[in-house]
Amino acid sequence: MAEPATPGSPLAPAAGGTPAAPRQRTRRRNPRLWLSAVWILLLVVAALGAPWLAPHDPLAQDLLLERLPPFGFEGHEAGYWLGTDSLGRDVLSRLIYGARIALVVAVAAAFAACLFGSALGLLAGFYGGWTDRGVSRGVDVWMAFPPVLFAVLLVAVMGPGLGSVILAIAIIDWTRFARVVRAETLVQAHMDYVQSARVGGASRRRILASEILPNVLPTMVALLALEMGVAIIVEAILSFVNLSISSDDPTWGGMIAEGRASLHFAWWVLVFPLLVLFLSVLSFSQLGEGLKDQFDPLSR
Prior knowledge:
MetI-like fold; 10 helices; mainly alpha
């Protein structure tokens, strides 16, 4: 005999005597997703509105204002909220203009690596055979090089500049997309819906574009957001060793390099760019994971 429905069960009769419909499961809001999105939105606003939001010219030097402490500390000067560096340049203005360079590199390099690596991963995972073997061997050989040292070598050969930094990051990190997308494509290619599409007479190109790609897309989006954070780190490393753009232009890595030299005299020159860099990389990472959880059909 079946057990009678308890009052708290989904199948318990409603007040009118008819069984109640099963309760819909609601997805919990992911605070990581929204907090990360808010920080990235602030970065985008700062980068786009830098000429209006920056309180001072980021390149303007005034030795009479060197190493002013930030707001709330003794010796603070009105209008210099985060203090000044050893040349009297406003730290807040340089952080705001540095966001421009960081976001340009992040978006351009990540999209370039995503398009190239994901295309190879889709083809290798779906077609298999010599295509899969060729892509897999190429990825293995490419990943044998230390990525940071490889980036430094590429920029040193191509010459410093924003284009060189973007190209170097894309050349290095396409393997991340190729490996993950290939593995996800292999899983999706053996799903029942793909077999049904084949039985229905769909072409291989149509199956790849209409059936597999939409289900691999959440993974690609998560990797894309993660890659943006990685690109910001690599650009900061290259600017730290003066291999990014001109040393006069404000970059977070350049500010960290300068702050390291004056840590005992002006700690804020090092701490604030480090904090912004850390929050930006963490936000892109959490944004990618949050988007995958939000839109992946398997997680619903």
